[in-house]
Write a structure and sequence with these properties.
mainly alpha
Length: about 90
């Protein structure tokens, strides 16, 4: 189905340079947040395993802290979606 010509005239035209930089910003947001989350999960995961080796009842708390560290990647994905939504 073809787009209505009246709607196409109302839609804002975005310069190709702006779209290019928007895609770059979204990629950087996801990439750096994933790297940060990976580092955080590695550090928190190692500490969590060490804590569980000493006190096994701390397993529940350890999983929560690893999940909080993983949330960093989700925040980066949300920011990237917001950036792409503005293009």
């Amino acid at each position: 189905m073809l787009a209505d010509p009246q709607v196409a005239d109302v839609a804002p035209r975005v310069a190709p340079e702006v779209v290019r930089w928007g895609f770059m910003a979204a990629a950087v947001a996801v990439g750096l947040s994933a790297v940060g989350a990976a580092y955080a999960v590695a550090m928190v995961g190692a500490a969590a395993v060490a804590a569980m080796a000493e006190k096994p009842e701390t397993a529940g708390r350890a999983i929560v802290f690893v999940g909080l560290a993983e949330g960093i990647a989700i925040y980066g994905l949300i920011v990237a979606i917001m950036i792409l939504g503005r293009l």
